[in-house]
Amino acid sequence: MQNPCLAPLTGSNPLAPLTGSNPLAPLTGSNPLAPLTGGTFNDAPVEALTSIGNFKYSKEISELAEQMRKAPTPAEKYLWDNILRSSQLGFKFTRQKPIHNFILDFYCSELLLGIEADGEIHYLQQEQDQMRTEYLDSLGIKILRFKNEQILKQTEKVKTEILNYINQRKQELSRTNLIAQTPPVKGAGGFTYCNIEKDFLHKLNVYDYIEKNKINFPISQLENGNWAFANDEKLQIKHKVESQGKPLKDWDIEINYGIKTGFNEAFVIDGKKKDELIAKDPKCAEIIKPLLRGRDIQKWKPEFVDLWLIGTFPTLKLNIEEYPSIKEHLLSFGISRLEQSGKSGARKKTSNKWFETQDTIAYWKNFLKPKIVYPNMTKFLPFIYDESQAYTNQKCFILTGEKLKYLIAFFNSNLFKYAFKDNFPELLGGTRELSKIFFEQIPVKIPSPEQEKNFNERVDRILELKKQNPTADTTDLEAQIDKLVYELYDLTEEEIKIVEKN
After folding, report:
1. Contact 339, 354 (CB under 8 A)
2. What is the pLDDT of residue 226?
3. Going by fewer Cβ within 10 Å, which terminus of the chain is more open, N or C?
């Protein structure tokens, strides 16, 4: 039986888009990752979205993917149930993921990794499969393929191969800023590389462009698992900063993802509805908390827009009968829509109850602690410090643990952006992806108690000013923090000028 996930919907060219001639063309506009309306593309309003993840696709593709989720092949179902479901491998995979005009059997957005279960039809379309693989590779997506009989009869071998590739992929993704490389420089102990900038599209000759912009990269810089390509002066400063730091994964901190409800229309409410529910049943105030979205995160202070989340997390094991006003509110959307059965019109299949959020959220207590919040994708790398017990949506990460005020001072500093911005993969439009696998590799210097105190005092003053007036000018205090950061890392006057210039 032909697997429809790799078959183009129209036309004879396996890479032909649904409409138009450019396979990367978005449904509207010229940038495939552009927002549909306002904000950053990852935070477009739910009602406006025609995409899942970072790639746009048509309604036709979406409907086909939904049909295929409901009718998986035996091999796809077996692979999902026994290996990929519920983050068994430490990363979340989704089923039948649309990527522009194609549908991948399984896809992990954090790893940019697709997994395909190939039936007999693939023996007859190997050339088409190769063309599609090359096209997806041009988007940075790698593909693992397994024959159906491998999945069904050699499950452990398949699982081991996927785990090994995940570890390899994590290493690949930690080396950001994909570039065009020329052959190694003889005797230089390194190689020559060229970073392809936006102006490349206007160049007539790629060889002339590389010759003009190439940079010699010493092989010694690759010895550290956390590196990025840059010019010589930036590499020297970056190495100086990194050599004094300790990777965040070795700090006493936790980084967790925001909350997925599976049905925001029901679980995300405005202030008026929140007040109404609490007036009817004061007890429900226990589980209704302010909500911050990725688009709300600004430097130091969020733009709270009076949205609230009903936190009926499965891990809480709540009795919905104890929250009658919330029960009534949720049921107004229809129990068939709230059920987590995977049926048409319902939420995806889980073992959770109809009134619970989609994700278990075992770490829910971390939302109630002091925390740093930052968006998962951003152009500007903003960080806030929060003590309001706010929940966040899935477009944010939260960081809890030690030395939070010092850390937010460093994250919001000029030196952090200069030294580490390129450690995060760049998507179209200059947006950076701040996934945990990249962020936890960042090395940060541990301050002395006196140094930490100096940072904390200034952070406290900034937070107090922003609390009184969100638009308060804190430029002087931020400059003081930058100065403290430069002193902490022993930067010279010349190095400081380089950082400030950029």
Report:
1. yes
2. 53
3. N
Among 22-36, 100-114, 334-348, 425-439, the minimum mean pLDDT is found in 22-36
Q: Per mean pLDDT, which range of 4-8, 189-193, 433-437, 440-444 is the poorest?
A: 4-8
Residues 6 or more apart whose CB falls under 8 angstroms from that of 396 comprise 257, 258, 292, 293, 294, 297, 373, 374, 375, 376
- Record the tokens describing residue 289, joined without a space: 């908390």
The verdict on domain 4-175 having CATH code 3.40.30.10 is no
CA distance 79 to 116: 10
Look-up of token digits 């696709």: 57
The CA distance from 273 to 201, in Å, is 50
Model pLDDT for residues 269-326, shown as the tens digit of each residue = 999 999 999 999 999 999 999 999 999 999 999 999 999 999 999 999 999 999 999 9
Whole-number Å distance between alpha carbons of 284 and 326: 7
State how far the Cα of 230 lies from the Cα of 232, in Å rounded to an integer. Answer: 7
- For 106, list phi and psi in degrees, rounded to 5: -140, 145
Residue ranges covered by each domain of the chain: 4-175, 178-228, 229-252+402-502, 256-363
Measure the CA angle with vertex 438, ends 163 and 43; round to 5°: 105
Beta bridge partners of 255: 399
What are the tokens at 209? 């462009």
Residue 364's closest CA among 261, 252, 478? Answer: 261
pLDDT digits (tens, 9 = 90+) for 50-90: 333 446 667 788 888 999 999 999 999 999 999 998 878 88
Q: Distance between CA 436 and CA 438 in Å, rounded? A: 5
CB 435 within 8 A of CB 110: yes
Q: Provide the token pair at 276.
A: 């109404």
User: DSSP secondary structure string, 289-316?
Assistant: EEEE-GGG--SBS----SEEEE---GGG
> CA quadruple 395, 401, 405, 411: dihedral positive or negative?
negative
Q: Provide the residue type at 191 as one letter.
A: F
151 Cβ contact list (under 8 Å, min separation 6)? 75, 78, 79, 117, 158
Both tokens of 80, joined, read: 């999902």
The C-alpha atoms of residue 389 and residue 370 are separated, in whole angstroms, by 7
Alpha carbon 22 to its chain centroid, in Å, reads 26
Query: Phi/psi of residue 118, each to 5°?
Result: -95, 125
Strand, coil or helix: 127: helix
- Gyration radius from the chain CA atoms: 25
d(CA 252, CA 487): 24
Which residues have a Cβ under 8 Å from the Cβ of 476 and sit 6 or more positions away?
Answer: none
